[in-house]
Amino acid sequence: MVTLQAATFDAHDPSRLARYWAQLLERDVVDEVDAALLPGEDGQLGVRFAPSPTVTTGPRRMHLHLTSADPDDQRATVAKALSLGGAHLDVGQRPEEGHIVLADPEGNALCVIEPDNAYLAGCGFLGELACEGTRAVGVFWSEALGWPLVWDQDEETAIQSLGGGTKVAWGGPPVITETRPHRQRLDLLAAPGLQEREIDRLVALGATRLEAGRDGVVVMADPDGNEFWVRAG
User: What's the pTM?
Assistant: First the structure.
């Protein structure tokens, strides 16, 4: 089985963006050869920032949801995100909606979710990674990671590790289109010596093998064409 190591965001200045998110999430930065990783603990998803000159316009494929314990906590998270270099973002949200939509210094959206949100109860501060994808993709990722579907309604799906923690969700159609390479993706880690076997299993589930990347990484796409990387353990 592969494990979900991180959600990766390409960045023009990955070091700066990693520092921003490290302060916001209160995590340490682990410098890698070609990226900066914020490892997750206790079921929290890791977040990686990698260098790329690619410019993205329009909606992006992934964004993060941060949870709040109470109204003061939500206000404090918003104030902290703004003080670190974030900005408010208008995505058409209605005034009566309780979540606050922001953007990090490179325009990646994040939502600070209202307190008492039952759906994200117990998920931790990084409550959810919200992704583009149809129901078929939610089912694919459930089988790929061995994580059960914890939401399956009206074409929207979400999965979560058996140990709890950050949910990964797909919002259903319509799915945005984006030229390759994609600037947001999931990074999977295969057990030592099992990378090729796991790639074959993912292909059998509906993935497509695209190309070989650097340092033994294999670039793949899920059934909706969302890129993901499989690293050798």
Answer: 0.93
